[in-house]
Structures are given as C-alpha cells and as structure tokens.
Amino acid sequence: MSWWQALLDPNTQWVLAGCILLGISSGVLGCFAFLRGRSLMGDALAHAALPGVCLVFLLTGSKSVGLFLLGAVLSGLVATYFISMISRHSRIKEDTALALILSVFFGIGIVLLTYIQHSSSGNQSGLDKFLFGQAASLVGNDVNTMVVVGAILILLTSLLFKEFKLLSFDAGFGRGLGLPMGMLDGLLMVMLLMSVVIGLQAVGVVLMAAMLITPAVTARYWTNKLGSMVILSGVFGALSGAFGTLLSTQVQNLPTGPIIVLGATALFLFSLIFSPSRGVLFKLIRFLRLRNQVLQQDVLRSLYECMEHEIKQQRISHNLYIPVNRLSQKSGKAHATVVKALSSLQKKGWVAFDKSRLEHWTFTKTGVEKAHDLILNQRLWDLFLMNEQKYQGYGVDQNEELIVHQLTKPQLKQMLAELEHYDMTPLLLGHMSPPTSRKKSEQGGVPV
Questions:
Q1: DSSP calls for 263-274
Q2: Of 217, 210, 222, 208, whose CA–CA distance to 35 is shortest?
Q3: Do domains 3-275 and 283-422 have the same CATH topology?
Q4: Is 3-275 in CATH node 1.10.3470.10?
Q5: How many C-alpha atoms does 241 have within 13 Å on its Cβ side?
Q6: DSSP, residue by residue, 364-388
Q7: Is-contact 353 442, C-beta < 8 A?
Q8: I need a labelling partner for 345 at 20 to 30 A (CA). Which of 134, 233, 379, 448 fits?
Q9: Under 8 Å CB-to-CB from 272, ≥6 apart: which residues?
C-alpha cells in the first residue's frame, strides 16, 4: 500500500489524527514536567493507571474504553495523592516517592492482569494491549475523546501559561505574589494524568512516559524561550505521531506505538547532534576552534617572551629568530603542536620563518602588535589578581577575557605604573623593522 493510498483509508485517518493529537498534547504538557524536574511523573502515572483499568474490568466485565479511561483516571489520582503525601509528610524525596508508587502500582496491575488472563473471560479481555498500546484499534469515538481532552488541555495551558511558567521557574516568587501555587501544581498533575490516560490505548503504559518527555527534551535543544519550546515540543510530538502511523501502514505487523516513540527518539538524536547551540557536533567544532585559538595565543606569548629575554640579555634588536625547540620548551607544548600553531599563525600573516633555518621564527608587524596586546593583557590580569583587594573598586569583571577595555584611563595609567614598578612592562618590540614587502615575507620574512 502506498503512502497516498494509506492516507485515503478511513481507519488510517482515524489513527493518524489520534496519534497527532496525542503527540501535540503530550509534547506541550511534557515541557512543564521536564522543567519542573518531574520527568518520571509521566512514567509513574502511566504505570499507576494499569490497576484502575483492571479493576474496572473486574467490576463491570465490560470492555468499554470509556470505562477503562475512567478507571485509569481514578487510579492515577490515587497515585498522585500518595506521591504528594509521601513527599510532603516524610523525609522521602519526590523522585523516590515517584519510583516507589510506580513500582507498587504497576506490580498490583500486573497481578490483576495475570488474574484476569487466567479467568474464564481472560482471553477476550484484551487488557494486555494497554501495556504496549494498539493504535491500530483506534476508532472514531476514541479519536473524538482524544480531540476533546486534548483541546481542553491545550486551552488550559494557553490560559494559564504565565502561571505555569512561574511555577516551573520560581514557585516561591509566585507564592509571594499571592498565587495559589499548590493548586496550580495539583492542576498540572491532573492535566499530565489526563494526557497520559488518552495515550494509553495508542502507546501503552510502558512507552507513554517517552511521549511526554522526549519531544520536550528535543525542543529544549533548539530554543531558550519557554513559549518557543512549548510550540516546538508540540510540533515534534505531532511529527512523531504522524511518522509512526504512516510507517506502520507500510510494513506488515509493525506496531504503531513503539514506532511513534522511536520517531520521537530519532528527532531527539538529530537534535542532540546537530542543534546549533547545544548539539554535540557544533559543541565539538567550537571546542576545537577554542583549543586552536588558545594554542596560538600560547605560542605567540612564548615567542614574544623569548624575544624579550634575548633583548634583555644580549641587547639584540634585529635579526632575531627563535627556534621551535625553544618555543616548545617555553610553552610546554609538543614540537609538532608548536609547528602546527606556527603554520596557522603564518597563514594569518603574524609570524614568518627564516628560509635558511626553517625551524626559526619571528614576528611580522601585525603579529608583534597582537602578541604585545596579549602579553599586556595577561600581565595586567596577573597584577590585578596579585593585588585584588587594592583594585576591588575598579569594577572589573573577572569573567571577561580582556581587562584593558574595562579600565578607565586613570585606572589603566595607575596599573601600567605598577607594572613598571614590578618590572613586568612588556618590551616594545615594534621598533624592530618588520617585513617590508610581500615578496620578502614569502621568502622567509625580514625580522620584526
């Protein structure tokens, strides 16, 4: 069956609509669960719903989806109450309470499910579908229920967006404003529960937590704004639902629910690797660039300080080249690493080598200015840190890389005088004649 033929099938349309709605509602609400550090909450509520489904079947003997969902809601509310009471009135933390309730309720559900399966009507119950879901069984009434519940959840989220935002980031400030943060927290828990319940038939108890958290985590990689994150999470959830539904129609006996979760996971992995701000690939690129920048700065400083030493000791002011071995020893870098950095600096036009002695390097005019600025900045920072109490009124931000631009002219003048006092003032190497032409520079460079 082709994609187009699958979309024309009424049953596929119902399943597709239901899964997309499930992805949107769970993605939107999952953002708040994720930001509040309650990633396990969806898992706990989904597992806690199983005993309710089983008890409803034992009491009524009916396979009504509506009654099953009602039982799941009641069971989830009981689980939510126990989680809240345990975390508030004992020394057990909320994450431990979540894990405790999850395991206990799911254990009860499995016991009841096993009992039902071995009873006379067990083979006809189909309750095991609630474990892993059976999206293909969705019909018009199920989708209508999901539409109504999903619309209510999204509407409430829109109306209470500011309050939920405050609850997620600073509940204490919200209480100071007089907002009922406890009531809002309870309402959010109920909304999470409803989102879980409408997804049980499609995705199942075991995988429902992934539908709540995975789209939210994926969206977090692409934005720093909560509004954008909520929208992106809903979009990613919808795309996962559509992907799982359409793919399962093309492959025989391929379960829709797990494929939906795998689709959400694929989006997460893509974001994990390729997100511009937080992706692993771009972080690696930025790290390598920073490492090369630091290496080049270390080599520039080492070359400058070696030339300073030669001038002070031998009073040489021209024809001064420094061998790579000495730069390697001065910087503490391997010989090959220093050569690599010098090659990069040569491409920038900051250093040049002696053609007759390829392992000997000097500055160009631009390079000596860059190196002087680096040395001056480093020694000003050294002076500032040695006398931090003396300079505490200067308003210097130690998180900044450059200190010169943070100082006023009188402050800079005073610190330069202090550098002179400690004999830390960088020698002005700029008086040394730089390469005078491109041709000479390419031939090895005239000494700076």
A1: HHHHHHHHHHHH
A2: 217
A3: no
A4: yes
A5: 31
A6: -HHHHHHHHHHHHHHHHHHHHHHTT
A7: no
A8: 379
A9: 221, 279, 280
Kindly write down the DSSP assignment for every residue of 74-86, as one continuous string: HHHHHHHHHHHHH
Taking each helix axis as running N to C, give the angle between helix 10-35 and helix 208-220, from 0 to 180 degrees, rounded to the nearest 10: 60
> CA 215, 236, 30: angle at the middle one, nearest 5?
30
The residues, any chain, with a CB within 8 Å of residue 4's CB and separated by 6 or more, are none
For residues 114 and 127, give the distance between their C-alpha atoms in angstroms, rounded to a whole number: 10
Which residues lie closer than 8 Å to 138 by C-beta, 6 or more apart? 14, 15, 18, 201, 202
Predicted TM-score (pTM) of this structure: 0.78
Please list, residue by residue across 87-97, b when 16 or more beta carbons sit within 10 angstroms of its beta carbon and e when fewer do.
beeeeeebeeb
Supply 301's token pair: 């400083």
Domain boundaries, the chain: 3-275, 283-422
The three-class DSSP label of residue 323 is strand
Nearest CA among 65, 57, 208, 24 for reference residue 131: 208
Distance (Å, whole) CA 441 – CA 56: 87
Amino acid residing at 439 = K
| Residues 6+ away with beta carbon under 8 Å from 263 | 239, 240, 241, 243, 244, 247
The CA distance from 99 to 52, in Å, is 18
Pick the CATH number of 283-422 from 3.90.1150.10, 1.10.10.10, 1.10.3720.10, 2.170.150.40: 1.10.10.10
* Gap between the Cα atoms of 369 and 297, Å rounded: 13
Q: Give the pairing of strands 351-354 and 322-323.
A: unpaired
Each residue's pLDDT expressed in tens, for the chain with a length of 448 residues = 556 666 777 777 878 888 888 899 899 999 998 988 877 787 788 888 888 888 888 888 776 667 877 888 888 889 888 888 888 888 888 888 888 888 899 899 889 888 887 776 655 556 666 666 666 666 777 778 888 888 899 999 999 999 999 999 988 888 888 889 888 988 888 888 888 888 877 777 777 888 889 999 999 999 999 999 999 999 999 999 889 888 888 777 777 788 888 999 999 999 999 999 889 999 999 999 999 999 999 999 999 999 888 887 775 556 688 899 999 999 999 999 999 999 999 999 999 988 777 789 999 989 999 999 999 999 999 999 998 888 888 889 998 999 988 999 999 999 999 999 988 888 877 544 444 333 333 333 333 3
Q: What is the rounded CA–CA span in Å between residue 268 and residue 429?
A: 53
Distance CA 418, CA 425 (A): 9
Can you name the residues that pair with 361 across neighbouring β-strands? 322, 353
Predicted local confidence at residue 128, as pLDDT: 65
